[in-house]
Amino acid sequence: MLIKGLALPSNSRSCRDDIKLVKCGKISSILKPLRVSLHRTLEAEPEKGFTKAINWRIGRKKKYILALGIIAVILISCFTFLSLKSNPKANVILPQNNNSTTTPSPTAHPKPKSSPLPNIIRIISGINGAVQADTQPKPPGLIESSQGMNTTVWTEVAENAWAFFKPGVGVDQVTGLPYAGGTGFKAFTDWDLGAYIQAVIDAQEIGVIPTNGTWGSDNRLNMVLSFLENRPLNNTTGWPFWFYDATNGKGYLENSTYASDGVDVVDTGKLLVALSNLINYNSSLTTRIDSLVWNVNQNRSNYASLLPIIKNNSGSNSLYAYYCWTGFESFWPQQDNIPNQIMTNISNSSTISTYNITLPDTPITCEPLLMSIFELNNSHPELTSLIKEVYQASEAYYEATGSYAAFSEGSSPGNGYVYEWVVAPNGSTWQITNSSMYYYNGMNPVIFYKVAFGFLALYNTTFARSMVTSLEQALPTPTNGYFDGMDTGKSLDAGSPGSDTNSLILDAALYYIQNNPDS
Predict the structure, then answer these.
(1) DSSP assignment of 124-170, as one string?
(2) Which of 197, 294, 404, 416 could make an SS bond with 274 (beta carbons 3.0 to 4.6 A apart)?
């Protein structure tokens, strides 16, 4: 089975791909409350009900026009909702079999269809200004209002991102374990646990949280390690469950690993990267971490048994493999330096051109690339060149299409969890797929907040700053952390705040602060 470009045994599965579909939760029906509200509105007496309650001084004829307008808005909203819900994958097509290197044309990214709602709103607003046609722009956000990027501004960015990990928001108040999707999904995988560990390290080093105290970094990390040392494992396989319930630390069996399944190696690699960084952050934890990773007490998972899989992927050209296999190598350094071999494979790949920028013809998305730069110690120097080329390609994409490009993985407004490829596995560019490598045709790309901030931390350019400020203006204020992003059609529901987005933004903030000490 293919996991993010990695060849794994048949009993392994992709565990990161479907999680975001679960995180979104079940979409509760909006039809019943709308119907009740409409029924009550129409039943109200002309002089006592809906119209009098808001004290509109208008005649009976205009009241009927207003009521009809409201009914039209509700019906159109319902029909739009039903259309999206009934056929969310209408634009899915099978992967192409060729290795086309054709540079995409700006016309390949259609503009969003205009909605009939604004016209109806304008009609209604003509009745004594009852409804405003346009909303006022938001005040300038943090980045837009700042005179320039410096340590103070990046610390405020980190505080905004850390707000997701407040107890009761993104972390359980009793167990201290993370909610991958906030209060809407109180479960997590080993990947999410690794993101949380890294977020705690980042926040403490930036100075957002103290070391001591109930919710200081020491206590938070102790709760995580205690969980890893004692968590229930699958009785049949001896491996961790796919998901764990953050409220009680037990296997989340509704969407978890069952007896016939193994472990996800990519999730494990992410966790090992974080645990290795935790040893570097606090060496007093070395014995505890080594004991659970090496299964010293013979009551934990035998991660050493996964090493043959690592060796078998020495021919990989996957950035996910490079990042995750580095996590394994930090605990088993004798493994033939597989990550360096993978990076050499990427460097030796044939090339592909997009908007006059040359990239290696290997699957490229920003998530593992940014994590490798921000989180890996002594990361490969080729990464610096590669991320710069990806950044230049993203800016060139914007200049040609007028749409921002911050390609990564995460939630999309209408197609669940997606992967956005600067270079896709089939050799084409600027593609969007789901976890099964189905290619979406005509889907608006999501502008991911974590990538925009990543570019800003690395290069501090006008383009990166402009992309971040556009997201600030469009998306909710990050009271409980940053949202995933928005699509280029400006749909604002591209994922609520979650652990992956806010952990990576904390990475970016720490990277800038550490590399610009005088700012």
Answers:
(1) HHTTTT-S-SSPPPPPP-HHHHSSS--HHHHHHHHHHHHGGGSBTTT
(2) 197
